[in-house]
Structures are given as structure tokens and as C-alpha cells.
TrEMBL record:
GO terms for biological process: oligosaccharide catabolic process. Residues 34-383 form the Glycosyl hydrolase family 13 catalytic domain. Its EC number is 3.2.1.1. This is Alpha-amylase. One of its GO terms (molecular function) is cation binding. Keywords: Carbohydrate metabolism, Glycosidase, Hydrolase, Signal. It catalyses: Endohydrolysis of (1->4)-alpha-D-glucosidic linkages in polysaccharides containing three or more (1->4)-alpha-linked D-glucose units. Residues 1-17 form the signal peptide. It is an enzyme of class 3 (hydrolase). Belongs to the glycosyl hydrolase 13 family. InterPro entries: Alpha_amylase (IPR006046), GH (IPR017853), GH13_cat_dom (IPR006047).
Length: 482
């Protein structure tokens, strides 16, 4: 018995050592800011051919020069990495009334679209970002070309056609996504093209890839791609639309460093913005033990494919207050937070393309938007200042059944540093007294402590076997524990 227990402990130790191996690319501790360059900032009017800012389906003029100009803004928010949606040279012209402003309709994977600038502009951006201590995450498309790309006619053998789609058992992979020309990754030329694309952008100074639509890409090819990225030290973030914890775990096993945890996004939207029970969020967080590398998983409130987080309330003021709540809550979680441009000011917008309205900057903000930004900036700063919050272990505490709709408690710990996060759904300010033993916390007296988030009236004290909390309505607080 004893020998087996010892063996188990040794195995657990070696597994722990493996997951924290310094040889694996890691983004733990980073805060990523997502930019859609066409909709961010126009730094060069000279490349604005065909721009029409009154049409959400047209080019809007944002570019790499504009992104470089605004790195100071991103740094002020506190982000440490920038993810750009694709910047490749796009197909000429529109399809179904939409221009390729979003970057997902490539015609040439090794060039920058003239609307965004040039390869030299990309090099200048990367250099400035690195100079400011930021990492660059580039969106990579590996599933398809744009509808009107020349390659579709020149190289028909590279693509899955109707026959392949009809014959396959794997419709997700071998049939076209939204009618897009679907690349056959098992074709040797396609395989080489895509592997070399990754090397090409690595040479431009890219630190990480966000791989688009991985659900629709051949598995053996993906694994080969990931192996090469890992050898090169490139961090990889996969987009599997609607991924839950199980899917993320599977792909981390298969070689991705990270995936977006869509199930958490949906729970955050329902609970924090929609006012539903916090048990939805707790349900997702309780599965964290399934993840090989929980600290790498990408956590987000919204992105360019989902309705804006703030769109979840009919009322703008409520949406702003709840976005502030959600940004604070997000910054208490283990993982890699990703903030989509505009979420830091609670921008509204429905489904695509309404979720891609032009970014607005400081001089155009209302006082309420300034307040949301201030809370986001503060929450990120608090996270970065705390090893426990940025890279510590996360433990969900068992809240009494009668309170679990309204209260979510978790601790984060790194070394001796420990913090307690308290999320509160209640519509009114409320005090809670909870037995430490029931929460699984050690009994230790602690004098009254206020939330680490600035300007937030939230308090905790510990004494006589009880944890006492005083929490404002619909907000997330975080406290240092002694
Ligand atoms: Ca421009
Ligand atoms: Ca495919």
C-alpha cells in the first residue's frame, strides 16, 4: 500500500514538473489585447482606397501604422501582448456585399494587404511592440483561401471540392466553411505552403499564433504544425468555436499551448451580464482539474465573432456597470485574459458586423466609458502586481448551497502569497458570514482588509472561525489573505 502511495506521489511530482517545464512556450501572466486592425485606428490616409466608414461591411481605413501609433494606449490599459486578426493580402473585391476588411479571406499568405500597409510597416509595428515589452500574436488562417483568391483557379488540386465533401465522414474538416475554398492539408504542396507560412511570420518577429477555425483542419497536419511551433518556441492558441473544458484539454494534450474557453465566455455572459445564477460559472471553473495547463487557457468576455458583452443588457448604464464587474472578475481567474478592443469601455454591438464598430479613443469617451476604462486598467494593474493573481493556483471554494446563486469564492495562491476573490451577484450591498471550516480555509485571525481594486467598497475580516464579507452589488472584489 505504502509503496504504491509513494509511487503515486512521485508520479504526481513528475507530472507537476512537466507542466511547469520551462521548455514549453508559455503566456501565463500575460494580458492579451485583441485588435481588428481595420476597425482600430487609421494612421495612414494614403492607403484608404475604397474606405466607407458608414458601411460596416466596407473597409474602414485602420492600419498597421495606426496600431503602432496606439501602442501607447494599449500599454496604458496594461496589456502585455497584442493579438491582431489577419493582415494578409486579401482577395480583391467583395463577396456577398462584404469586403475582406476582417482579414479572413486571404489571397497571399506572405504579404500584407495594402489597406493595412506593407511588410515594412509590420516589421515597424513588431519592433515597437517588442520595444514596449509587448508580445505579438498573429492570426493564422490554415483552413481556407478567400473566395476570389487566384489560387482557387490556378491550383484546383489544393482544395476539397463537392466530391470530397460528399465522400468524407468528417464533414467538419473536408467540407467548406461558409462556402470558403477549403484547403486539403494532406496535399504535400498545401502542407508545405502552410508550414512555411508559419516560418515566414516567425521570421517577421511574431511570438505566437492564433490559429483560426481548427475544428475544420486535418488533425495530423495540425499536430505536425504544432510540433514545429513548439520546437521554435512559438506559443499557440487555437480557435475551436464553442470549445468547452474537455475540448480544450484534448487539444492541450495534442500540442496546443492554449485554446479559447468558449464555455466560460458563455457562462460569464449569462451570469455576470445576464443576471443568471453564478452556478453556471462555478460549473465551468470546477472542471479546471481536467486541463493539462490551466494557466495557458485563453479567457475572454467577447470577441469579433460574438455579440459584444455589453450588448447583453438593454440598458447602457447597466451594461457599463456589469462590464466593469466582469472585467474585474476576469482578472481574478487563472488563465490568459484576452480583452477585445472596446470591451474596456463597454462598447455595444450585436452580431457580426455590428460587433466590429470602429474603436473610439479617450477624447471621444463619455464619463461613464472613462469609468469603465479606469476599472479595467486598475484590475489589470492589480493582477500584474500579484503573483498569486497572475500565475498562482486557483481553488474554487464550496459556498453553502443557499448562497451559491449569488456568491462565488475562489483563492489564488503562489508561494506564500494568497488572495481571495469574491464575486457577488446580489442586487444590493450585502454582508456574509461563512464558517472557515466549511470553506476549507484554515482558521487564522485577520483584521479588516479592503479590496485590492481601487475605489471599491468591499471588505473582509477573519476571526473566531468565521469569514466575514461585505460586498457591493454586482461586482467582483479581491482581498489579500494573511
Ligand atoms: Ca488607412
Ligand atoms: Ca477544412
Amino acid at each position: 500500500m505504502q509503496r504504491f502511495a509513494l509511487l503515486g506521489a512521485l508520479l504526481a511530482m513528475s507530472a507537476g514538473a512537466q507542466t511547469s517545464s520551462p521548455s514549453l512556450p508559455s503566456f501565463e501572466g500575460q494580458v492579451v489585447y485583441q485588435v481588428m486592425p481595420d476597425r482600430f485606428f487609421d494612421g495612414d490616409r494614403g492607403n484608404d482606397a475604397g474606405v466607407n466608414r458608414d458601411d460596416l461591411r466596407a473597409w474602414h481605413g485602420g492600419d498597421l501604422q495606426g496600431l503602432t501609433n496606439k501602442l501607447g494606449y494599449i500599454g496604458q490599459l496594461g496589456a502585455t501582448a497584442v493579438w491582431l486578426t489577419p493582415i494578409y493580402r486579401q482577395q480583391a473585391g467583395n463577396t456577398s456585399g462584404t469586403s475582406p476588411y476582417h482579414g479572413y479571406w486571404p489571397a497571399d499568405f506572405r504579404d500584407v494587404d495594402p489597406h493595412f500597409g506593407t511588410l515594412a510597416d509590420f516589421a515597424a509595428f513588431t519592433k515597437s511592440a517588442h520595444g514596449a515589452g509587448m508580445k505579438v500574436v498573429l492570426d493564422q488562417v490554415i483552413n481556407h483561401y478567400g473566395y476570389a483568391a487566384a489560387a482557387v483557379k490556378v491550383r484546383p488540386a489544393w482544395f476539397n471540392g463537392e466530391a470530397e465533401c460528399a465522400a468524407t465522414k468528417n464533414k467538419d474538416v473536408d467540407c467548406s466553411l461558409a462556402g470558403l475554398p477549403d484547403l486539403k492539408q494532406s496535399n504535400p504542396e498545401v502542407r508545405e505552403l502552410l508550414l512555411d507560412n508559419a516560418d515566414f511570420w516567425r521570421k517577421q518577429g511574431v511570438d505566437a499564433f492564433r490559429y483560426d477555425a481548427i475544428k475544420h483542419v486535418e488533425g495530423p497536419f495540425l499536430k505536425e504544425l504544432l510540433t514545429r511551433d513548439r520546437v521554435a518556441g512559438t506559443w499557440t492558441l487555437g480557435e475551436w468555436y464553442d470549445a468547452d473544458t474537455g475540448t480544450v484539454a484534448d487539444w492541450q494534450q495534442a500540442g496546443f499551448d492554449s485554446l479559447f474557453l468558449f464555455s466560460l465566455q458563455s457562462a460569464l455572459r449569462g451570469s455576470l451580464m445576464g443576471g443568471q445564477s453564478l452556478t453556471r460559472v462555478a460549473g465551468v471553473l470546477s472542471r479546471q482539474g481536467e486541463l493539462p495547463r490551466p494557466g495557458e487557457v485563453a479567457l475572454f468576455l467577447d470577441n469579433h465573432d460574438l455579440p459584444r458583452f455589453a450588448q447583453g443588457s438593454l440598458f447602457e448604464d447597466q451594461a457599463q456597470a456589469r462590464t466593469r464587474y466582469a472585467l474585474r472578475a476576469l482578472m481574478t481567474l487563472k488563465g490568459v485574459p484576452v480583452v477585445y478592443q472596446g470591451t474596456e469601455i463597454a462598447m455595444r454591438g450585436g452580431a457580426d458586423p455590428d460587433n466590429r464598430r470602429d474603436m473610439r479613443f479617450e477624447s471621444e469617451w463619455t464619463p461613464a466609458e472613462k469609468a469603465v476604462f479606469g476599472a479595467a486598467q486598475d484590475a489589470i494593474a492589480v493582477r500584474k502586481a500579484s503573483r498569486a493573481l497572475s500565475v498562482g493556483d486557483e481553488k474554487l471554494l464550496p459556498v453553502p448551497l443557499s448562497l451559491e446563486d449569488d456568491l462565488l469564492l475562489l483563492t489564488r495562491q503562489a508561494g506564500n502569497e494568497r488572495v481571495l476573490a469574491a464575486w457577488h451577484r446580489g442586487r444590493a450591498r450585502k454582508s456574509y458570514s461563512l464558517r472557515l471550516s466549511a470553506l476549507g480555509l484554515k482558521d487564522a485571525d485577520q483584521t479588516l482588509t479592503r479590496s485590492l481594486f481601487a475605489g471599491q467598497d468591499a471588505k473582509v475580516s477573519v476571526g473566531g472561525g468565521w469569514l466575514h464579507l461585505s460586498l457591493p452589488p454586482e461586482d467582483a472584489a479581491v482581498f489579500a489573505l494573511e
